[in-house]
Specification:
The chain has 393 residues and is of the alpha/beta class. The protein is built from 11 helices and 12 strands. It has 2 domains: 142 residues, Aspartate Aminotransferase, domain 1 (Alpha-Beta Complex); 243 residues, Aspartate Aminotransferase, domain 2, CATH 3.40.640. It comes from Limosilactobacillus coleohominis.
């Protein structure tokens, strides 16, 4: 059987040999409890701290201790939202975000609004997946305690102007948090230059293991742990440290960041997207890009409106032909609700919200993968249109 073409790297990425080897070796060598004072514990702790240094260096954190290892993006996001609210509610109850954030941000904010009396401003996004910086400036006030705006949108790939946002927020009373799960390893991130106070990352988006990530917390920012238990992670996150996963995560960071690899990957992804667009044009497929292909877009993601073709049906047909894509976020793929990202960008009456697919690229994708995708679309879409016409008649 021919190998499937995997084009849903925004959902998750496969572990690569380097990260699997690092995890396997760590399970043999560093199996001790990193909080224990015995020999095995000290060995595990030393390895963990080396991994933490790799993570800190990747975003230009000032101190290794600013990296708190978590179970991933959702825990990191939830921790920022709930614990900032808890720690700073006496200073104000206003939070700013965007209408197309990940659910790990939006749902905690809805909870704070509904049950705890917080006021949340949801910034509009335009058809290119960008915010109006003036709207952000106008929304900031003395009651604003947190601004949470993602680095790269997980469905359309728009790259938000994080540096400009940081410049605006730094002169206010608010902390600036960015969900960088989709941006980490794909676009430049410098927490010092970008004035980022809090940042969320997940390992499985960069060919590392699942259920591990980190929360960057600028030195001096303090709020209570989301969970209760021991004093691990500098009293910020209890629970026995997952040293093998942390070392595998660090290896993924090294692979993606060493020797200009991030830029090389970006160049490869852009070339693959150009190949896809050329193939669609040559095949006379009726489509439009959601967002755009040039300005302020992350290299690895493309979201396409296939006009008149329902995304759920197209996704199934592609899967039957060995092609794996996505109709939206993997976290909401089981929902019948339309993509809140496309609704925010185009409105709830736009046909795009039911007729769009996301293709997201990874290190293992090749030109042949794109050729196979184009060939599948070229075969499937005319068939679907013919079947739809027969049903109408």
């Amino acid at each position: 059987m021919e190998k499937r073409v995997y084009l849903d790297n925004a959902g998750t990425t496969p572990m690569i040999p380097e990260t699997m080897e690092a995890m396997n070796n760590a399970m043999h060598e560093f199996w001790g409890n990193a909080s224990a004072t015995n020999y095995y514990g000290r060995e595990a702790l030393g390895a963990l701290e080396k991994a933490r240094h790799v993570m800190a260096k990747s975003i230009n954190a000032k101190l290794d201790s600013e990296i708190n290892i978590t179970s991933g993006g959702t825990e990191s996001d939830n921790t920022v939202i709930y614990q900032t609210a808890r720690a700073r509610q006496n200073e104000g109850k206003h939070i700013i975000t965007t209408k197309f954030e990940h659910e790990a941000i939006l749902r905690p904010l809805e909870d704070l609004e509904k049950n705890y009396g917080f006021n949340v401003t949801y910034l509009d996004v335009d058809e290119n997946g960008q915010i109006d910086l003036q709207q952000l400036k106008d929304a900031l006030d003395d009651e604003t305690i947190l601004v949470s705006i993602m680095t790269v949108n997980n469905e359309v790939g728009s790259h938000l102007p994080i540096h400009k946002i940081g410049e605006i927020v730094k002169d206010s009373n608010a902390w600036f948090h960015t969900d960088a799960v989709q941006g980490y390893g794909a676009v430049p991130i410098d927490v010092q230059a970008d004035h980022i106070d809090l940042l969320s990352v997940s390992a499985h988006k960069i060919n590392g293991p699942k259920f591990i990530g980190f929360l960057y917390r600028r030195d001096g920012i303090n709020f209570p742990s989301l969970m209760r238990g021991g004093n691990q992670e500098m009293k910020h996150r209890p629970g026995t440290e997952n040293v093998p996963a942390a070392l595998s995560f660090a290896k993924a960071v090294e692979v993606h960041f060493a020797n200009g690899q991030r830029a090389k990957n970006a160049e490869h992804y852009v070339a693959l997207k150009k190949q896809l667009i050329q193939g669609l044009n040559d095949s006379d497929i009726d489509y439009e890009i959601n967002g755009n292909l040039t300005d302020n877009m992350a290299p690895q993601t493309i979201n396409i409106w296939f006009k008149g073709i329902r995304s759920d049906a197209l996704l199934v047909n592609l899967d039957l032909n060995g092609i794996v894509g996505a109709a939206g976020s993997a976290c909401t793929a089981g929902s019948l609700e339309p993509s809140h990202v496309l609704v925010a960008m185009y409105g709830e009456d736009s046909p795009r919200i039911h007729e769009s697919l996301r293709f997201s690229l990874g290190m293992t994708n090749t030109n042949d993968d794109i050729d196979r995708l184009i060939a599948a679309l070229k075969k499937i879409i005319p068939q679907m249109k013919k079947e739809a016409a027969i049903k109408v008649n």
